[in-house]
Structures
1.
Amino acid sequence: MNDLRDLYQQIILDHNRNPRNYHELPEATKRVEGYNPLCGDHYTIFVDLDGDVIKDVAFTGNGCAISKSSASVMTTAVKGKRTEEAQKLFDTFHKLVTGEPAGLSEAELGRLAAFSGVSEFPARVKCAILAWHTLHSALQNEQEVVTTE
Amino acid sequence: MTAVLQEKKTYDVAKIRRDFPILNRSIRGKKLVYLDNAATTQKPQAVIDRIVRYYTEENSNVHRGVHYLSEVATAAYESSRTTVKRFINARDEKEIVFTRGTTEGINLVASSWGRRNLRAGDEVLITAIEHHSNIVPWQLLCEETGAKLRIVPVNDAGELVLDEYARLLTRKVKLVAFGHASNALGTINPVKRMTAMAHENGAVVLIDGAQGVPHLTVDVQDIDCDFYAFSAHKVYGPTGIGVLYGKQALLDAMPPYQGGGDMILSVSFEKTTYNALPYKFEAGTPDIAGVVGLAAALDYVSSLGLPNIAAHEHDLLLYATSSLKSIDGVRIIGTAAEKASVISFTLEGVHPHDIGTILDQEGVAIRTGHHCAQPLMMRFNVPATGRASFGLYNTREEADALVAALHKTIEVFRG
């Protein structure tokens, strides 16, 4: 049961139940879809850029608790950040969920630390990373549907 | 009452479980509860031993050498064909083609029979509850030939709407393909009746038997289907091997599927003469160990008796269905009157993948996802489901373990 609580931490369950920034963003400058066909996890990430600042970010879609809470936490983590900072967070998050040393303390990781348990569940890494890859793709100006399978 | 008691007595599940070494292992410190039999079944010691014996004592190429081992391997390979023929009651060994599995069997028919016989304007009729392997080969064929793919709809219980089937069965339909039992919902289709209806309209019938053979007594002559494809690994045999049954007259008229060794009589650069059935469809060195392993699996199933297995599984189906229904928020997808021991379900507020992960921590293995049946998931308006599928070695206690693990899931999620 301990392992399960490591994966399904309160923050994850909370963001799954009440996802933040969970709506469309009609004025978004970028809109990219993330889809894992095997799972059926399917999200759209909306990014409103002001120069290189993420003025607003939101998402819609559905999937498992890990993918949905990850998308929700991500929006709260990158809102107001410069794109460069968001890319760094993407790298950090990637390391965190794949079990590589992220080089940051829990305090620096903030809410993202809730996803550290994912690395113990290899089959679920793709769920946690889907929204981040989608955001990454949006910031890279790639328009095709993103998948992490 | 006496009959029931006798059945219970002869079907000794505790003893049967000892035939499957993997069932002894623990997963994450918990006893393995394997409820993913519709994906693949575990293998009895008899099958494992047979494959080891083949490689230890008999390994050689078939139909080629004149040396002793080649004769032994050929005899083992061909007697396995006879075992399959008997198991599904085909008329002749010539009608039994070894394939890599159900998928290859369906592709063989689509490619060989389909390309030869379909024209623009013709129709292929499949159903809304098919596995992707009984959808995509027909889509490819239709794209190539200009034929149209038509779909028999399914009702809310997961049963095919036979009136619609009758309506769709026009003279344009040249081939009808449907599953014997649905991997995603468990629905058992009235295959004999559906075959007769198709034949009345002059259509050829292919049955995807992947989920039929493990649970039902299959008699291809009684069903009267033209093709029947199944996989060894769903019926306690090895992966990578399967069977395509086809009526001899149809197979005879079909061009080869692949070219290579074993499927020819003579080759010159001017003209190649193809081998007789079934070798015409078995190009290249086959999976000989897989074939003898398949025969060992069918012998094992026969030794228990399919009617006994079916009765045991039906008991588990009813027991597990009623236990699952008692859980608050569980919705069972697929409530057909005739069902194999497959239960698809959703749990309110919890995505199937989260269910799968939590159940796995409890040692309970189920499948979660779309079960390679995305159109069907759309029909029932769910992105995915959890699926518990029971095999000949499962027990009521394992159904209880599933229910307990689902309660734990609810505890984690609803706190």
2.
Amino acid sequence: MRNFVFGPLLRLLPVGLLAMSLQRVLFAQHPIHDVRLQFVLALVVAAGAGGGAERGAVAGLVFGLVYDLNGNTPLGLMALAYGLGGMTAGYVHTFTPDPQWWLASLFALVGAAVGELSIPVAEVITGQSGWITGRLLLVVPMVAITAAVLCPLLMPVGRWMMGVKRKKWKAMLE
Amino acid sequence: MFSSLSRRRVLLLVVLTCVLLITLDKRGNPVIDSMRSVFARVMRPFDTATKAVVLPVERAWHGVTGYDDLLKQNQALRDQLEHIKGNDIEARSAVLEYRELLKINQLTSKFQYKTVVAQVVGESPSNFQNTVEINVGSRQGIGVGMAVTDGAGLIGRITKVSPSTAVVLLLTDPEFAIAAQVLTIPGNDTPSSTVPADGSTPTESTSATTTTTTIAGPAVTAVPSFDPKATTTTPPSTTDPFNNIPGFIPESTAPTTTLNPQFTTTTILEVVRETGSLEGQGADKPLNLRFVDVTSSLSTVKVGAVVDTAGGNTSNAPQGIPIGIITRISRQTSSGTATVEVTPNASLKRLNFIAVVLYVANQDAIGR
């Protein structure tokens, strides 16, 4: 626990605040087809794709709590959704310990879709109905594609946040 | 840390933590509220720094790409402004007359309540919330539930307040609901009678039979055709119904138009008030109006009718704030109910300066 607090958490919080700020100032102000692209979620799934399911879940939890504290959502709602998203993206490590960029992007796409879709579902569970509509067919793919596109760029940041070093493969000498 | 925990344990830990926090927050927790307040302060320097970087780039980009559009928009707005100027004088006159009538009848008006002007400083970052953040808070007297308006009408209500900021839930959010009313004049066949200017002949009036609340409206002086000799005089005509109101002071009545040389046309209008609950249905969707009395509304409410706030002792929005216009009524023959869609007056995508109505229902209800 001590390692976590003085390791990833110290990095997660400032990066999370900066990402949240970018989300508020840039991405929330400039929706595309009325869809606000989710930079914070993209960072979460990138951390998951870079560090594995457990790290993705923790990154999602911390970033989601930052989101909840900042917004109007009940504390824990976005954390739950983003935690699931980060965890899903991290499942890429069950296939390969060092995924190629395209494979990581693919899992980031799925993870972001799961994360974004979990929000209205979690809202329904907490008694806020009305968001599960046909509009999800536009929102979820757009958010997921954005996360997939940003994933190769954000993966180094995600690895650094979670204290993961990329494996260096060496060719065997004969 | 991560190597010591299995994947299932991590998932379980995350889910349980979230469920616990959601439960605590939903039940109302002062610790969480103060955490939000602290967090808002922590976020401010980050926001300022991000804005300092992002805004110049954004403005440069808009300067390059949006200049032509801006010119066109500017020209269109100038044309629109010229058109509105004409209506403005007429509207001002009507507002003054309306206030005068309210004063005479000792009624309250939305114009009596103080407002605090605020600026929108942020929008909801999520796709599943229609909220905006404004730069006034409890220090300026803002409270949860207060109505928020812009020049065109109601835009929402305050849901969260910190000392220097507040969150406004926009009326398109599915969580939003407010008591609303529709004022209509039943039957387009309301006859008018022509009487001599001396008022010797009694005025005819119509009375629509309806089960809903009816408000006997004031006499409306109608001009059947344009008369260049028409003059506006302050003393009321003898057909003015305000003469019959106890406590009525003839010297301070609303002006009536007397036509030269001989005739004044007077129509007694009866206004039907339908009340109901107006609910948001999500961004870019019209509002849904559910009437208290469904059956009567089917016959009286028409497309194009104005919807405004109904007020009441439990609503923090005073009566009479315009909300929107009925754009569609779809009747369902099987259930006998109707779906009434209302398009808001205010453009919720371009909010900048807004006003919070400093009105608290319970306090105002006392002694009125």
